Amino acid sequence: MKSLICAATSIAARLNLWTTALTATTALWFLFTGFAWFMNLDEAGKDPDFFKRRFFETLGFAAFFEFFLNAQVLPLPAEALGQLFLLVVVLLNVVASQDQQYKPVAKLTTGILVSTSVGLLIFTAIQLTSDWANVDKASLANEFLMPIWLAVAVIPYLYLVAFFMGYELLFIRLNFMNNRRSPRLRAKAGILLGLRVSLVDVEEFSGPFARAAAESESVRDALIQVRGFKHDRSEKEAARTQARHALEQNSGRRGVGANGLVLDRREFAKTKEALRWLSNCHMGWYQRDDRPDEYRKDLLDMLISTDSKQFAFESEEPVVSKVRKDGQAWYAYRATPSGHVLGIGAVGRPPSQWFYDGPTPPSGFPSAKSAGWSDYMSPDRPEWQAEPEI
User: Fold this and answer.
1) Which of 276, 296, 277, 299 is nearest to 286 (CA)?
2) Taking a C-beta distance cutoff of 8 angstroms, is the pair 222, 216 a contact?
3) With contact defined as beta carbons under 8 Å apart, do 1 and 156 qualify?
4) Binning pLDDT at 50, 70 and 90, where does residue 299 land?
5) What does the pLDDT look like over 65-114, one tens digit per residue?
6) Which phi and psi angles does 212 have, rounded to 5°?
């Protein structure tokens, strides 16, 4: 990429868009922007607008603000050290902001960033206004335009790199799907014709369609598999869109639908995921060799204290857990935003597992005689079916 930037600056110099005075700014752009884009190329296959976003970053307010702050160019060593210092402060701020115990560090680093930005902003404004008659307007304009034409030059190159990286990784995956043998050249050609230049398609091409494509004997057969993959993905996306729409439409509605299930299903998926996770932890704890065969009474508190994301909900209703005195039975439940309660528990050693749902919290430990409970062998627990993906 260094050679590309050198070529781009050479062409820009012939067009009077670049001079040696911009060498330091160009080097910093390469270090902190171009190289960062290169290191994040693995995200290009997950974000269809990856390169569009990178380009528009050079036109946004943040880019203009950065240009204004850099209008008064410092010597390269001072500029590099300053940028490095700010980078360290930013990283500390990001890490500290995610943990409550480092809140003082987050406040300190935020203060440093705000103070530095305001100080540089005032310094630059004073310098420009006091010496405006002597400011080289052409150089200033070149400095403003430089990130834009650098992005125009670099993004196609980065796309090609991401393109070859994506297909290289895809064909490695297909080798494993084809009994560790490289797919036929005709199969690869069909895959290329089907996936074309979409990095997202290349990244997502997997599963039975990819396996069948890898085993294909002709271009046509491989192409059929790629088209089948795209059609299947479109249907799944349509189903997710429909599920999101139904979730929004039924928000706040009382009662059940034609299928007998609660209409308002907000946080059903998240609640069931959290309760299943708690159940798995209880099973694992019960069967530990270094512990007695019993369910841990403070297990939920321990998991929550570790800032477990499994128990982070949009609404404030907590998970409630109870363990029997002898440690041989437990249950937990949570009320969803609709008021419907979902629960899970066990009686006896694993793999005992019981499921609960009802309009009110369970009245006691799991039992066939206790309303709302059914064990894992019973098919009669429709509210515990998997929720549609959204």
Assistant:
1) 296
2) yes
3) no
4) very high
5) 555 555 555 555 666 676 677 678 777 877 777 676 777 887 888 888 77
6) -65, -40
How do beta strands 320-323 and 354-358 pair? unpaired
Domain ranges of the chain: 2-163, 178-247, 268-384
- The pLDDT tens digits for 11-43 are 988 988 888 888 877 887 887 788 888 888 999
Q: What pLDDT does 67 receive?
A: 59
Cα 202 to Cα 292: distance, rounded to the nearest angstrom: 50
**At a CB cut-off of 8 Å and minimum separation 6, what does 331 contact?**
321, 322, 343, 344, 345, 346, 354, 356, 362, 365, 366
Residue 134 CA, chain-centre distance (Å), reads 48
- Band of residue 352 on the pLDDT scale cut at 50, 70, 90: very high
Q: Could you give the CA distance from residue 356 to residue 344 in angstroms, rounded to a whole number?
A: 6
CA 313/CA 335 separation, integer angstroms: 11
Closest CA to 307 of 105, 104, 101: 101
In this structure, which amino acid lies at residue 311? F
3 state SS for the chain: CHHHHHHHHHHHHHCCCCCHHHHHHHHHHHHHHHHHHHHCHHHCCCCCCHHHHHHHHCCCHHHHHHHHHCCCCCCHHHHHHHHHHHHHHHHHHHHHHCCHHHHHHHHHHHHHHHHHHHHHHHHHHHHHHHCHHHCCHHHHHHHHHHHHHHHHHHHHHHHHHHHHHHHHHHHHHHHHHCCCCCCCHHHHHHHHHHHCCCHHHHHHCCHHHHHHHHCCCCHHHHHHHHHHHHHHHHHHHHHHHHHHHHHHHCCCCCCECCCCCECCCCCHHHHHHHHHHHHHHHHHHHCCCCCCCCCCCCHHHHHHHCCCHHHCCCCCCCCEEEECCCCCEEEEEEECCCCCEEEEEEECCCCCCEEEEECCCCCCCCCCCCCCEEECCCCCCHHHCCCCCC
CA atoms of 209 and 222, how far apart (whole Å):
9
